[in-house]
Write a structure and sequence with these properties.
With 594 residues, the protein is of the alpha+beta class. The chain has 18 helices and 13 strands. It is 42% helix and 11% strand.
């Protein structure tokens, strides 16, 4: 028999349909004699004859007229080899291990049942392994030990199964992909639904690949880990135990924000929730922003850090008519012989000699209390003096300068040195220790040392920019964080600020330009706090480690959790909490050594 394949197929298909040769001849219009000769293998039928027979039998032409064995095997082997190898070729790009075989399956599935079966198996396996790989990555960062072994086992297992199937598919036209989820089934009625499910799965996987979820772990300064869930749980416990009414926390790793969350209320009485876009009074966080603004103006040659500020003005500072209610009134300096020595560096490093605020003086008069540049004494007045000089030199307000050079470039859209009507819809009220609301002060005139209105989100952007050395040159950042004076006082404020101690000498506690500085095993730390009625904040960055934290509260109980929160969140055990007077809510005063 010269052409046994056609003969055997015709006999098989005819008997399968239950036709006699006569019945098939009647249906196909092919003579009985021709059908008999084809079934005996005596002739090679014309293509048209095969088509007539296939139509009568309601089958495909290919089911009768098969290629010669060598050609069929060669063609099928090539396609199966390509289909089973495609995931390896596509593994270079995200999700192409799925997309390449999916395309081949869609293209070939109607040509041959073998292609359809193999294609489904390949796509199902690759989708399953992609999901398993994603889960193993999550396990890697959440489970110690086992997570690592699971992660490194997925890829070798996948490659092994692929290689085995390449060999078996080519030699025996069989395949076996264990652990596969049957995303693609053979039921035709639901094919449309399954195609939609595949597309959705692709989108989810692609989204996960391109926009991975933030790591559920925070790597602290000492290399130890804490999960974000554990940190959140601890914060909730702290604010509950200490009675903190509202709190925002941002943690920085690798010079980027990795954790940002708000807790509690912007208005405890109304039970209105605090959010990261709620405006909070920033208090002395104002000074950190202003110091960066000043260094930008130094870069632009507007002023020099070491030139006495008075020399930039055409007349004495006390000769100017005040334009504000009080902060630019320097008439009290007419008889002062020291203020003319004050420079921008002295103002930013709190060595100007001015008091913190003039209203702390018995007569509420501003004066220079010691030789400028000789010692540290925290002074908001020093910052305001520098602000007033800059405004007169440039003819622009502090608010305009800050918006142009800091807030707008960093996208701090809800930050300002003065109250804005836009803040009315979402702002935080300050709370006393017992939860009584302080009246909201909305008529402050812009002051560089104290009137910043901002949000957790906005101020986090600012701190992230500091870590990433934006806005300024690297030389300016280095200048900003260079110690200007060492600190030896027992406390930062109050009577003990005039008492020296050696308690903090290992920290090399000092002050730079607008920021406090300390030393740690992980490089220097730059900190800035904020304190006002009902608002207590703290921030510290470790630029060399790329880490830091921002804590903002609208509660007079806020500072009582700073010590523990700093330790838990980033293992900051270096912030001088006693010097800052951050007394923990559960502190045992009998254990004090000082």
């Amino acid at each position: 028999m010269e052409y046994p394949s056609i003969a055997e197929n015709l006999i098989y298909q005819r008997k399968r349909k239950g036709y006699t040769q006569e019945e098939l001849a009647g249906k196909s219009k092919v003579t009985i004699r021709t059908i008999q000769r084809i079934e005996k293998g005596e002739v090679k039928p014309h293509l048209q004859t095969v088509k007539l027979l296939a139509a009568a039998l309601a089958i495909e032409v290919e089911d009768l007229m098969i290629l010669k064995k060598s050609q069929a095997e060669t063609s099928q082997e090539k396609w199966l080899l390509l289909m089973h190898s495609a995931p390896v070729l596509g593994g270079i790009l995200p999700l192409c291990n799925i997309l390449f075989p999916l395309f081949l399956w869609l293209h070939k599935r109607k040509h041959n049942k073998v292609y359809d079966m193999h294609g489904r198996a390949i796509v199902n396996f690759q989708m399953t392994m992609s999901i398993l790989f994603l889960l193993s990555f999550i396990a890697l960062v959440t489970l110690e030990g086992y997570g690592f072994f699971l992660f490194i086992a997925v890829i070798p297992y996948t490659l092994t199964v692929i290689l085995i199937n390449i060999v078996t598919a080519v030699h025996s036209q069989k395949c076996y992909y264990p652990l596969s989820i049957p995303f693609l089934r053979t039921r035709k009625p639901s094919a449309f639904k399954k195609l939609g499910a595949i597309i959705i799965s692709f989108c989810a996987l692609f989204s996960s690949a391109c926009h991975p979820e933030p790591s559920p772990n925070i790597t602290r300064l000492d290399g130890s880990l804490i999960t974000t869930d554990s940190l959140t749980s601890k914060i909730k416990q702290l604010i509950r135990d200490a009675g903190v009414h509202g709190l925002g926390v941002t943690v920085f790793e690798n010079s980027h924000i990795t954790y940002q969350k708000t807790f509690g209320y912007k208005d405890y009485k109304k039970q209105s929730l605090l959010s990261d876009s709620t405006n909070l009074y920033g208090a002395s966080l104002s000074k950190a922003v202003f110091s960066v603004l000043v260094m930008k103006l130094v870069e632009e040659k507007v002023i020099d850090l070491d030139t006495p500020l008075e020399t930039y003005l055409p007349k004495k500072i006390y000769e100017y008519q005040p334009l504000t209610r009080w902060h630019d009134d320097y008439s009290g300096l007419a008889q002062d012989t020291l203020y003319s020595k004050i420079t921008a560096r002295m103002c930013l490093s709190h060595t100007s000699g001015f008091p913190n605020w003039r209203w702390f003086e018995p007569d509420h008069q501003l004066r220079v209390k010691f030789e400028p540049g000789t010692r540290y004494s925290y002074s908001g007045e020093g910052f305001v003096y520098l602000q007033v000089v800059l405004e007169k030199v440039l003819g622009h307000s502090l608010e305009k300068l800050a918006q142009q050079k800091i807030f707008k470039p960093l996208g701090m859209n809800r930050s300002s040195y003065q109250w804005q009507e836009a803040f009315e819809g979402d702002y935080a009220a300050g709370h006393t220790t017992t939860g009584v609301l302080y009246p909201k002060d909305t008529d402050n005139e812009p002051r560089s040392g104290s009137t910043l209105e901002t949000t957790v989100e906005d101020y986090s952007k600012f701190m992230e920019a500091v870590l990433q050395r934006k806005i300024l040159t690297k030389e300016s950042w280095a200048e900003l964080f260079t110690p200007q004076i060492k600190l030896h006082s027992l406390k930062q404020f109050g009577p003990l600020s005039n008492t020296d101690t050696t308690l903090y000498q290992d920290l090399l506690l000092g002050y730079g330009l607008g920021w406090g500085l300390l030393n740690s095993p992980f490089g220097f730390g730059a900190f800035k706090e904020g304190h006002g009625d009902g608002f207590q904040h703290y921030s510290i960055l470790f630029p060399e480690a790329g880490k830091g934290i921002l804590i903002m509260t609208n509660s007079d109980n806020g500072e009582s959790i700073f010590k523990e929160l700093l330790s838990v969140a980033i293992r900051d055990v270096y912030t001088p909490w006693q010097w800052q007077n951050y007394i923990p809510y559960n502190h045992n005063f009998h254990s004090d050594k000082i």
